[in-house]
Amino acid sequence: MALLKNSLLLQGRVRHAAAAASFTARRGAATSTEEYQRRNYAENASEYNTVMGSLVAQRRQGNIGFRPYLLRDAYDDMMLDGVQPVRDTFHTLIVGTMKGSRLQDALYFRDQMKEMGLQPDVNIYNFLISTCGKCKNSDAAIMVVSDMSAAGLGLNKFCYAGLITAFKNKTPTTEETMAKILHFVEQSKGWQYVERVSKDSAENIMMNVSEEELYNLPTAEYVNRRGGFVLKQFTVYHAAIHACAELGSKETLEALLDMFNKDNRDGSTYDAFMAMQAMRCYLRCGDIDSAVKMFEEYTSSRFPAAELYVTLAEGAMIGHTPRGMQVAQETIVIFFSIGVSVLLYSLAGFKILKFYISIIFQEKMVSRNFFLNPRMGTDLLLAAAGERTGGYTTANYVWDLLQSRNITPSLPAVEAYHKGLKERQIPSDDPRLLHVTRVLDNLNLRFGPRRNIQ
């Protein structure tokens, strides 16, 4: 891998420029065979495919890692070497441009593919549409779909999800945006699954990468980083309901939920991701009661994922209203506490049935070691720390939960909590304030003080 990076980073462009200048001579007297062999990193299609696959598989670490512009350099070198690309070459290149959000390069590789007599397949179009979505270019996405239809290829669920994402990312948002999303969901009901190319190497470029990440689906982070479970037949609904949450369109969400219920009269219901995004949408629109109702309906028949609790608690704190802060605190206590005394405190105002259901949930959480983790705790503390009035009860409670589990939240979360404490009239020698100050000082020593803190 080090040899690959050195070859491409240090020699790629120099080699490309030198080769272009002497292309007609095809490495004549100016370039000896030995020199060419020394600086060459691939000699045939298989070796070039390996190089490009390695480039795409790289992940960014700090300022080092995946550099999507190198794919174009590697392709140019391949052309200058007189090596003929194959279908797998273009699959790899377009996956890489999708990953790097380089739409012009993606369209360039598509055009190159056509010039060489290789008709793009359904996967290629999926990648192109996803790239359009990442680049917030809905017009290009529609153009790609038209091109796809002209080629006689049917759209599958990934194409529709990509189109929805493209319109979701388009700015500014208009009434047409939400109408298009509903249209794509309705249109997707008639899609016929198109068998993917067997042994499609483009889908195996990044080892251990899920289908969700490969196709840039909104469920990718939930599935990969948070270990969530989704029903893949609802891919289009995942994209559409996520778009409603991001854009804060309650009307479109409720139209989608009605559509979903009509489509699934057999008893199929929302999965965790759909419930979570619907809750996010309601909470962003200030409709806490509808979010609580969605939560209760989902949890009435199954054990909920941790993310649902965090989504409800974090979203309820938007605006830091008295009602929202109450819901947030009750939710946090129910999910993260173990002691019965804390449960009794958290269930104030709840029905007796809720008490027994919560005890059952607590037993399951204990058995599965299902507690607060650093990421969830940081998100909750950041949300709670923004409360400007009141007794700071929720923020203090989240902080105490984190401390009881020896979890140190991120620097921004500690800064926000420390600022909130100092804004309240508490003595400078208060034990809580002193402890938070020490934690903040330690984090600043490790990571450096942040600037422009309001």
From TrEMBL:
Query: What lineage is on file?
Result: Eukaryota, Viridiplantae, Streptophyta, Embryophyta, Tracheophyta
Q: Can you say where the PPR repeats lie in this chain?
A: 121-155
Q: Which PANTHER family match?
A: OS05G0145600 PROTEIN
Enumerate the transmembrane spans: 332-353
What is the official name of this protein in its record?
Pentatricopeptide repeat-containing protein
Whose protein is this, by species?
A: Dichanthelium oligosanthes
Provide one Gene Ontology cellular component: mitochondrion
Q: Which UniProt keywords apply?
A: Membrane, Repeat, Transit peptide, Transmembrane, Transmembrane helix
Source domain of life: Eukaryota
> Is Transport set as a keyword in this record?
no
Mind telling me which PROSITE patterns this protein's record contains? Answer: PPR
